[in-house]
User: Which sequence fits this backbone?
């Protein structure tokens, strides 16, 4: 009885050893290609605000980092644009506004306001209540859970 079961099991394993790779290759060949869209339809694309003037531009705002900072404005919104001359290697950078300068602290202040994700030369909106207050910008690495850079204090104008 055991010998018959062993022989049957051996035949099944040999047939699976031949049929499974063939079925796998056939399945790969029968797959449909993944559809690729060249551009996002205009109805789905987010509309980015247009800024018609540069309020100020500074290259000395971030001690220890070579980041050009511009404040852009339009009739109803204000934004900050950050353009580093060298690539920042910290992962998941986020831009914050804080009314109090954090100094060398590695944790975010409790009153820090999220402006948005850091993207090179892409403006992040500055909320209306914070346009008229003194404060500083923070670059925070979400993955490392630390403040990467703190700007010099910005005076409200």
Assistant:
């Amino acid at each position: 009885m055991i010998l018959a079961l062993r022989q049957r099991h051996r035949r099944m394993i040999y047939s699976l050893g031949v049929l499974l790779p063939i079925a796998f290759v056939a399945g790969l060949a029968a797959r449909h290609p993944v559809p690729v869209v060249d551009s996002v339809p205009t109805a789905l694309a987010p509309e980015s605000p247009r800024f018609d003037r540069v309020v100020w531009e500074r290259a000395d705002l971030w001690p220890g980092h070579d980041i050009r900072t511009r404040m852009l404005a339009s009739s109803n919104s204000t934004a900050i644009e950050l353009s580093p001359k060298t690539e920042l290697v910290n992962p998941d950078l986020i831009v914050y506004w804080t009314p109090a300068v954090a100094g060398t602290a590695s944790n975010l202040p409790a009153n820090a306001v999220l402006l948005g994700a850091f993207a090179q030369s892409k403006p992040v909106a500055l909320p209306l209540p914070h346009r008229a207050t003194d404060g500083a910008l923070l670059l925070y690495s979400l993955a490392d859970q630390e403040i990467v850079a703190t700007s010099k204090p910005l005076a409200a104008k």
